[in-house]
Amino acid sequence: MSEEGEQVPVTVILAGPCTVVQKREGARDGYAAVQLGFGERKPHRVSKAYRTHCLQAGKGVFEVLTEFRTEEAAELEVGSVLGPGMLFKPGDKVDICGVTKGRGYAGVVKRHGFAGFPATHGTHETFRHGGSIGNRSYPGRVFKGKRMAGQYGHTRVTTRNLRVVAVREDENLVLVEGAVPGPSGGIILLRRAVRN
Q1: Where in the chain are all domains bearing CATH 2.40.30.10?
Q2: pLDDT tens digits along 163-184
Q3: Cβ–Cβ < 8 Å for 152, 114
């Protein structure tokens, strides 16, 4: 509930703790960035190279490693822990990247919102079909990107400009107004909005 007494629908995101696993420097690597690790994995479930790389930070093996470009990389130390309160505050706008729920092979009505055919007036077993897809000898082919039945969902999607309602630093939680892509418990990427 907001300060004005208004109920706000939010998504609760566990956004930490994130550990600095590696630093990129402009002189050595050509750009400045920091690699963060999040989550936990059993050490015997990953390759030896991945395990050795994660253990350099001294915090165990991480489920996810992601690199972020930042000019402040030199100030951070390998093994230091970042919380959501260091990056976000209430009122900020954020972009959230995630993989949407997979819905399998779907028809054009479910996948693209086609209206379908009328149920009467001679319609014969084509109630949810797509209809015509081309036109005679010209162009003589089907244009690329034609909306048809196929795999629906399980794609990377970015939801832009969601407002941060609250940040609970002690619990590593970020409360964002609205919905985010992906299933409950899925891995998402939270960053400051690129364009407001």
Answers
A1: 1-16+83-116+149-196
A2: 999 999 999 999 999 999 999 9
A3: no
Helical segments of 116-173, H only:
none
Superfamily of domain 1-16+83-116+149-196: Translation factors (2.40.30.10)
Question: 17-81: which CATH architecture?
Answer: 2-Layer Sandwich (3.30)
Burial of 174 (0-12, 13-18, 19+ CB in 10 A): buried
Is the pLDDT reported for residue 196 higher than 80? no
pTM beyond cutoff 0.85: no
**Within the chain, which residue ranges are assigned CATH 3.30.160.810?**
17-81
Which tens digit of pLDDT belongs to each residue from 101-114? 999 999 999 999 99
Query: Please, are residues 98 and 186 in contact by the beta-carbon 8 Å criterion?
Result: yes
Helix H or strand E segment including 53 = helix 48-55
Token representation of residue 65: 């490693």
In the block, residue with structure tokens 């407002």: 163
Report how far residue 73's alpha carbon sits from residue 29's, in angstroms, rounded to the nearest whole number.
Answer: 12
* AA identity, residue 58: G
